[in-house]
């Protein structure tokens, strides 16, 4: 049920007996009021129409926005309260149409891509943390043990290990010195590089390597005048 509005506009038909706007503005009565006992009807109708039209518009606004009846009962306090209530509801409804709700935390942004662009953020702002396609790894995916016998793990799954081991023996698979990787490779060791450690490279001879399994490898060297095992640096890559 629509709220009731008692305030009606007066003399609003096309053929209403009202003076034209030009003559109304030229009338001395507009400034001094109507003279006693001589009130031109068409001029009075014009004044009543202007005031009643505005009153009707305001009353209709109150009724529409507040949902309350607007009655011509002379209660100006009540009308003032209703007007304030109507204005508050109008502003709240209007603001809610354009404002974002705090509880939504940005979920109610209509065009999130345009919003991100307007903030000056690039494509990286849209990426999730991870190691998959279109994801960005954070530092938790770059783990390492930076010691003399250490390792480093990369987001791709590649693992690099290094250390100082011994090499000795030749001629058979089992002759090489058996060494351990700092950590086992989960899948396989792909490559090992050896470098003699020390100031007498002639003692080392030619070194070679054989991957035994994911945890161990053997290091060999050709015969030289230096009989004991020699120390060598290694660098292994796997995943």
Any overview of this molecule?
The longest helix has 26 residues, at 41-66. The protein has helices spanning 21-26, 29-32, 41-66, 76-98, 112-118, 201-204; strands at residues 128-129, 135-136, 143-145, 151-153, 159-167, 177-180, 189-196, 207-211, 216-221, 230-238. A hairpin with a 5-residue loop joins strand 4 and strand 5. The chain has 239 residues and is an alpha+beta fold. The strands form 3 sheets. Strands 3-4-5-10-7 form a 5-stranded antiparallel sheet. It has a 3-stranded antiparallel sheet with strand order 6-9-8, with no helix packed on it. It starts with 20 loop residues before the first helix and ends with a strand. The protein folds into 3 domains: 21-98, no CATH class; 102-136, no CATH class; 142-238, Sandwich (Immunoglobulin-like), CATH 2.60.40. The model has no long low-confidence stretch (mean pLDDT 88). It is rod-shaped. Helix 3 crosses helix 4.
